[in-house]
Amino acid sequence: MKGKEITTLEQVNAIKCSPDRKFFSAEHDEIESGATTDIYFIRTLEILSHLGLSDTEVVGEVFGRRSGIVAGVEEVKNLLKGKPIEVWSLPEGASFERKEVIMRIKGPYCEFGAFETVLLGMLASSSGWATAAREVKEAAGDKPVICFGARHVHPAVAPVMERAALIGGADGASCILAAKMAGREPQGTVPHAVFLIIGDTLETAKAYHQLMPPEAKRIMLVDTFKDEAEESLRLARELKDALDGIRLDTPSERGGVTPDLVREVRFRLDAEGFNNVGIFVSGGLSPERIKLLSEAGASAFGVGSYISAASPIDMTMDLKMVDGKPVAKRGRLPGLSVTERLSRIL
Hints:
Layout: H1 9-14, H2 28-33, H3 39-50, E1 57-64, E2 68-69, H4 73-80, E3 86-89, E4 95-96, E5 101-108, H5 109-112, H6 116-140, E6 145-147, H7 158-168, E7 172-173, H8 176-181, H9 192-198, H10 201-211, E8 219-221, H11 228-239, E9 245-248, H12 259-271, E10 278-282, H13 287-296, E11 300-303, H14 305-308, E12 315-322, E13 325-326, E14 343-344
Parallel strand pairs: 6-7, 6-11, 8-9, 9-10, 10-11
Antiparallel strand pairs: 1-5, 1-12, 2-4, 3-5, 3-14, 12-13
Helix pairs in contact: 4-6, 6-7, 6-13, 10-11, 11-12, 12-13
């Protein structure tokens, strides 16, 4: 769907989706045109236009129904840029309380009203992901957290999710596009597949060390074939100071990564003088598990589903001023909310 913004039912009726369309995610121009909004906003514009009220000046306020970390502001800014409106917002990465105003928009209703669905969705999903990332980062403290969640979401939103995780406090992202858009380099080594194909953990580690650039961390999985402690020592003895760390990703079928396993691997590495070798842990991590594994000796964490599966933070936009007069639906207080935390972004 290319062209100008959708403001009439006639335009909606004219939208045709090709049966040959490859992917079902919205393209940028479809988002910008309003094709992903709810139909009731277009019906609203039809009615207001008929009554000569579509350009009524209003002020809308956005708030979340639970506390969290705000993200998605930059996308909303880009969506509304160039319109004759004013926008104030909390900065990305800021914390907010339940029902606290995180964004305020002022201008003719016809300029932004139909995009309510779109901007709320941008804020809701990204803020949910950022909040989950903040929770795991707080659990990890000063130890690195890398977002591994791209495989758990649709690829169209994977970069959005991992960018939000970085805003929330994650130290890195494995998704190539997400990292690049954040001005960083993607992080991650190799999966179990390469070990299974080569057939030996040490041979795989040696090939990685020989072929990968110096800036690529030498952190190797050690749970593919043998006892994790045994494999860790094999790699450490061969690669010595070149080995940055080992990665534990023991599957649930074998009990997963436990604090006792981390303690044993840490003890055996230290006993042979390999104190420099870190223990990177991944696989079904939550803030509670991160705290336990960190106390046991884990030095870094790869977190996927806890971030990617985070519930969106339900966002609501209320009109609080219409033609300069305070308004509100029943149960809400009319007029602008008192806040000194918003800064103008448009």
